Amino acid sequence: MSVVVLQLGQGGNQYGLALFNALASSRGSPLPCEFFEESGSRGELPRARALLIDMEPKVVAAVTRKANGGGAWKYDSRSCFTLDSGSGNNWAAGYCSNGVTCREPVLEQIRLKVEKCDCFGGFLGIQSLAGGTGAGFGAYVLEALKDEYPSACIFSHSIWPFQSGEVVVQNYNVLLTLAKLHEVVDGIITVENDSLVAACKKTLGIPSPSFVEMNSAGAHALASLLLPSFWRPIQASQASTCNSSQLRVRLLSDLAYALCAHPAYRMLTVYSTPQVRVESLDFTTFAWPSQLKQLKRIAYPVELEQVPGDTRLAKSVQKSVASLLALRGPGAGTADVSVMREPSLYPSWCIDPLNVCANDKEMIKDGGLAAGMMSNCQGAILPASKALTRAYAMFYSKAYLHQYFKHGLDASFFEAAFATVEDVCHSYSIL
Amino acid sequence: MKETKASLAFLCSLLESLGVAGVTPDLLRQAKSNAPCAAIKLWRPLHDVVCLHLCCFPCQEDHRELEGFQEIWRSSGVFSDDHGDGIVGFVKFYVALWGYLPSSRFFGLPIDTRESRELLLALGWLLSHCDVFLRGIEARSREISSAIASSSIAAPFPPLPRDVATLAGSRAREVELGVEELVSKVLHSAAQRDREAREGFLADHLLMLHGRIGVILKSIHSLQASRFRRIHELNQLQLEAIRQKIQHRLYTQFELHLLQDPEAARDLQRVLEAERQLRSELASFQKHEENFWNWMADENDDEIATPARSLKQEPSSCCGVSQEELIPVIQFLKDPKDQCGVSPVPSEILAVLAPAFTTMNHASCSSKKRGDDRAAFGRLRDAGFKYQPSSTLTTIDQSIQRLEEAIDKLTIGHKELRDQHRIAIERELKSFLEDESFVVVGL
């Protein structure tokens, strides 16, 4: 099931490049056909099933140049859509103005991409939540896709801005985007820049990680779940080595089925192991129990960070509505995953919340083991609570609202978006 | 002649494959010529066919039901005085129960009879009654059908490659099973909760179920759309190939699938071979069955036609058919008031009916008269009457004509009543004559 990736805005394009590199760097496996298409002529590199969209040509050109600089794959030079002027970090400019203007040419390019898929599996939009193009225009494009392809699964991979603030209106943009995405997509995979920095610093030993390194870390975690794998039973006694007779995980419908079936819970977070320095990989001993133990520690922290003014989440232990565990490496098909089945990790009403897929092929090095987890958990919405608090404060002081109003938004649009995100936060808080 | 020989051999092998032992072409031929030595050997096949019919013809692998009956045969033997009579009685009982001619001499034959023809006739009737040829076809086709069923090619053959055609279907089946399992778990878990918690629990799971079904429906819809698009692309490519004279005609998706997948092509070949074999077997069965019944009929004609003709040559020794024997017609004519409210028909009308029926000597009707082949043949057909097709149709036409003339002469003034009367008589006569077994042998 082929997936068309939409790289939206600056952050989306940079993260998309990292994701395709991660997908292509899997050891001993051909490029996954879900994300790469064979070129028509012999000797030409496979092309990413991606459409690069930005309102400025600079980032797209840079990303294309990097990808086409002699790697194992490349972007199709015709799969880019750019304009001459950006959205100015204004969600309304991206959603209301550029969206309407660019709808037809963008959808036409997407149609061409979809038609190249043997068996179309859905869209994965990669976007930042802070800016104008990725957030505003991205939300518009995904909404348009919902109308144009009603039977397609649509996932959004959304990058949370730094809490310290990248853009002054990022909280508005985040909440408006989240509210819109919650209406139109099947699942919202979130990754926090703060978490990526922390991971790079603590576990990868990078003192001041760049965006490239952060993107690479996040993309590897996502790739561990998106690379080909097969469903396996949860019970180790019923499991067997992975083979072709087992059902392959079909992107993206299987993810939606397993993780995002409940309409109130569509926020996903990705975790992965091992988190060690590249130079330390050769000296690392891999074993499934230790990998899973580390993954559990990362995915299910015992205490959440305290949120000022909102004590509900702080008192709760992070719980998950559903989780997808992907194991890669020798013995993945038979590894004991009971550590991830503890009832305390899930709400009492959940039935069979854990799903496991596996692939015996190594992802990182010979004999190396890797585990990834995509979880529909409370951790995914934690930054939203913070953003909501700040956005309400700005909204009541009417800060920067005129910039949005001049593109056609009004106060009720904001209020509705805030209410939607508040509902989502509330749903997660009572797990 | 060769065909008959082959058909007899075929019947014998068929009976053996069904579990009937001891029937050989020689035995059948001897029985046809009423050889005394063949009689004793025919009891066993008769018994076996009865047993098989009682067991509804079990398949080759499951003859356990039959073993009980055959054990009787093995343990006792037909020649045993004690059990032999029991077995013969058993055969006669079921043969009579299933409707064999009650007046047949077969029922009077002892175990050591020399009348092999009577037994052959009974066996023939039994084979016909039990549809042995049909059972044989079923047994032979069972094996071939299982070969077809084990093939990975579905029948009727799909018009599309398997991987595309079955994808949406298999996805739907997977989900159906998954949903069933989920629902049962939800209901089980809900039953263990108190009422307040149960409502929220069920609501959450209903929403999840709705979401999952929505995802699956979208997935299936997407798969179907992909399928249609690929079909379109295939056709476009083929049309282009035809235009460039690389290809001569437009292949169906299934043909293309076979060209692309040699294993599927071999599978299809196996299925077609099995189908062809099945059809060939069916034709063979039909031919052998026809030959067998022709052979049986030949026997009847040879042995029975002459006495029948001889009877016609001896009018003096024949007696006419009595009015009592003309069951419905006579009753009708005698009491027409019940039918159409007219007065009784004069005896002159009854008189014109008489030539329509062949008469027969009562002495020749005796079923106990040894060597009376004609009577045996009559019993094969029906209990009471033998229709003489040579002259009767003409005679009946003449009779009806004369009957009409007679009616016309009557003083029944009302034309409508007269027509009703005439139609009723014609109908009754025709229904009576439609039965092939008409008059010859009185009851």
Automatic annotation (TrEMBL), chain A:
Presence of the UniProt keyword Glycosyltransferase in the record: no
Occurrences of domain Tubulin/FtsZ GTPase (ranges): 32-229
Coiled-coil residue windows: none
UniProt subcellular location: Cell projection, Cilium; Cytoplasm, Cytoskeleton, Microtubule organizing center, Centrosome, Centriole; Nucleus
One Gene Ontology biological process: cell projection organization
One Gene Ontology cellular component: cytoplasm
Top-level taxonomic group: Eukaryota
Keyword Nucleotide-binding tagged: yes
InterPro entries documented for this protein: Delta_tubulin (IPR002967), Tub_FtsZ_C (IPR008280), Tubulin (IPR000217), Tubulin/FtsZ_GTPase_sf (IPR036525), Tubulin_CS (IPR017975), Tubulin_FtsZ_GTPase (IPR003008)
Keywords: Cell projection, Cilium biogenesis/degradation, GTP-binding, Microtubule, Nucleotide-binding, Nucleus
GO molecular function: GTP binding; structural constituent of cytoskeleton
SUPFAM superfamilies documented for this protein: Tubulin C-terminal domain-like (SSF55307), Tubulin nucleotide-binding domain-like (SSF52490)
Family: Belongs to the tubulin family.
Free-text function comment from the UniProt entry: Acts as a positive regulator of hedgehog signaling and regulates ciliary function.
Protein name in the entry: Tubulin delta chain
Organism of provenance: Selaginella moellendorffii
TrEMBL record, chain B:
Keywords: Signal
Any Pfam family: TEDC1
Name of the protein described by the UniProt record: Tubulin epsilon and delta complex protein 1 domain-containing protein
Domain annotation Tubulin epsilon and delta complex protein: ranges: 104-296
Source organism superkingdom: Eukaryota
Residues in the signal sequence: 1-22
InterPro entries listed in its UniProt record: TEDC1, TEDC1_dom
